[in-house]
Specification:
With about 425 residues, the protein is α+β, with helices and mostly antiparallel strands. Helix content is about 60%, strand content about 10%.
Length: about 425
């Protein structure tokens, strides 16, 4: 039945060419061209009809049901791309029905139709993958994950398989035989495409091990990187530094070396503050009764601490660390010990310090310049500008109260000091 339709179609084409006055010497190849044109016309008409039906059905479905994926497919015209698969299939079905220019022309046209089909399938898959990636990245749970790298892996694999199939169609051999033959060129390919292979493997490792997300603050001093990750792909990692410069580094640079990721700090309950003060040895003295009475008037919380420590001392309890009565770490023996207690009390009542995290004031090993006194706490606000403001306020307050405790900070002599 189909062959009769093809014969009728060829007959109509030849009669039409004769009516146009085209010589018979030209008709033997012109009718082939006309037949191919008719096949292409039919193929595209079928594809257009299917496309309109699918698009109309999807839009009617979206009116009654909120399907995000279908909406994205329509937005990126994926339905049209999917319909592009039909014309080569229609051409492959219609070509054998007629004697199209002999065996040689028939095989060549059939190969071209199959190559057309493979290219259409690859383009359709890429559009669908792009639509799915948009849907997944729109979800909050997937927003910070490098999903783009996974979809790029799939697109690379689809493109590789499609290229192998196209080459096998042109050579008239099985794709599996062609893949086997590529093993002989593996060493050359690895040498020529070394950077691409390294970037591909590193991108997979970054995505698999969840090492970086978009929005992470990373530091890589060797590459001049200190900023926020803007984009993560299989070939590059794009970072916007805090001076608004953009730095792109290959993924294997992050894998082969070490880099700092501040994501843990952002996800934690606070950002660490550590500052060290060098106390001059001569200013560290024992606390007299008069000094303690004067310090009671300086701060109410410190006064309560001194009174309770005096009561414990009267009972013979001299406990500074893990005090059974809940008194903070410090002492009333020296002004440095009293300062440790005051700073601890000050930090505990500071509104922007997270007292639920580690908080302590400690003395470090003595140095030639003085006795290091270090405060260790966590700011509840982790934003850079606010964090620096909180930290500066704490340091400035501590420096301002040192004279009240009779303590001095070590300061390296300058030319002005020698002149005086």
């Amino acid at each position: 039945m189909e062959n009769k339709l093809a014969d009728i179609l060829l007959g109509v084409i030849r009669e039409g060419l004769s009516l146009l006055g085209i010589p018979e010497s030209v008709q033997h190849w012109l009718d082939v061209v006309a037949y191919i044109a008719v096949i292409l016309f039919i193929a595209f008409v079928v594809a257009w009809i299917v496309h309109r039906i699918l698009l109309h059905s999807v839009r009617r479905l979206l009116k009654h049901h909120r399907l995000h994926l279908l909406g994205v497919l329509v937005e990126y015209d994926a339905i049209c791309r999917l319909s592009y698969v039909l014309p080569p299939l229609v051409a492959v079905w219609l070509l054998p029905l007629g004697n199209v220019g002999g065996t040689h022309w028939y095989e060549m046209l059939l190969h071209l139709a199959w190559i057309w089909f493979v290219v259409a399938v690859i383009r359709s898959i890429n559009v669908v993958l792009h639509s799915i990636s948009k849907v997944m990245l729109s979800r909050e749970a997937m927003h910070n994950r490098p999903m783009k790298g996974f979809f790029q892996i799939i697109q690379v694999l689809v493109g590789f398989v499609g290229t192998i199939i196209i080459i096998s169609i042109l050579l008239g051999k099985s794709p599996f035989n062609l893949i086997t033959g590529l093993g002989a060129f593996a060493a050359v390919l690895m040498l020529v495409f070394k950077d691409s292979i390294l970037g591909f493997v590193a991108g997979v490792l970054l995505a698999e091990n969840d090492m970086i997300h978009i929005g992470d603050w990373i530091e890589l001093p060797a590459a001049g990187v200190n900023g926020i990750v803007c984009d993560v792909t299989l070939t590059i990692v794009k970072v916007q530094n805090f001076d608004n410069t953009i730095v792109t580094v290959p993924p294997y640079t992050l894998i082969s070396g070490s880099f700092v990721n501040w994501r843990g700090m952002k996800l934690s309950a606070g950002r660490r503050i550590t500052r060290t003060f060098l106390l001059v040895y001569d200013s560290i003295v024992a606390c007299s009764v008069e000094f303690l009475e004067r310090m009671k008037e300086f701060d109410a919380a410190l006064a309560e601490f001194i009174i309770r420590k005096q009561e414990q001392a009267f009972r013979g309890m001299v406990v500074d660390t893990h005090n059974p009565e809940g008194i903070v770490d410090g002492s009333i023996e020296t002004n440095a010990g009293l300062l440790r207690a005051y700073i601890t009390l000050y930090l505990r009542r500071h509104q922007m310090v997270n007292s639920e995290l580690d908080l302590m004031v400690r003395s470090l090993p003595p140095e030639p310049e003085g006795l290091p006194l270090q405060l260790y706490c966590f700011s509840s606000d982790k934003i850079w500008a606010e964090y620096e403001s909180i930290q500066a306020g704490i340091v400035e307050h501590i420096i301002s109260v040192l004279p009240t405790f009779g303590l001095q900070l070590y300061q390296r002599p300058s030319g002005r000091d020698f002149k005086m």
